[in-house]
Amino acid sequence: MDYYKIIEVRDFIEKNISIKPETGIILGSGLGPLADEIEPEIIFNYDEIPHFPSSTVIGHKGRLVFGQLEGRYVMAMQGRFHYYEGYDMKEVTFPVRVMQLLGIKNLIVTNAAGGLGEHLSVGDLMLITDHINFFGDNPLMGKNDDRLGERFPDMTYAYNPELREKARKVGEKLGISMPEGIYMGVAGPTYETPAEIKMAEALGADAVGMSTVPEVIVANHGGINVLGISCITNDAAGKAGKKLDHSEVMEVTEKISENFSNLVKEIVKEF
Ligand code: HPA
User: Fold this and answer.
1) For the whole model, what pTM was predicted?
2) Cβ of 192 below 6 Å from ligand 1
3) Active site residue 60
4) How far is Cα 77 from Cα 100, in angstroms, rounded to an integer?
5) Measuring CA to CA, which of 1, 44, 151, 244 is 20 to 30 A from 254?
């Protein structure tokens, strides 16, 4: 039973930490350096944590960091489990369940994404206002566990309006412009075709990426407030008249990393 596995991991973690974290952070591709700015109390490699999905696919990057960021006690996932790696939706979202039972109130979810919206440029940090689940799957499929949340969770405020307002103010204060937009989550691992990007545009998406949606669904089910930030790493397929390249995606996240870290640190202070 999943529930008892989550309890077991919570108890395992609680034995090792002195303060309960209130804020969770999931760091997307290339955005991991922020975790190095946390003054750690304890760092777990994913393969040290019972019941965490086996990290053979994810390699050695997967770490869960507990400690102080700007004087706030946080827990941060450095690296996440992606659906395209072959993990199922329950595995992808297992860490969010652990956050839920640890009592996390607010979750900052971040990712790298291709930009579609006219108002977006490469290098922007987009504040996610809403999402479109295009995975063709949902982590809440199957029997509902009422101890974790309700059968039909509302998704009207999936990206918490108050947290968004706080993030907007922090952006203004730091002079980091944060355009807003709708994130479409797709399974990957192929980048989209130009035709799929036209479809995504027609459906109202501003950015597209291969993560985030599953974790945000589970966070909402579990009563955790979500703030979502997309790092726009490239113009979506067919927009720039050239091929997409993962190394370019990584280069952009590297360049934007400092702004991103400053923004998230300041946001965490406001929570
Ligand atoms: N599409 C999907 N996922 C992505 C992209 C993209 O263009 N860029 C970064 N992650």
Assistant:
1) 0.96
2) yes
3) yes
4) 14
5) 44
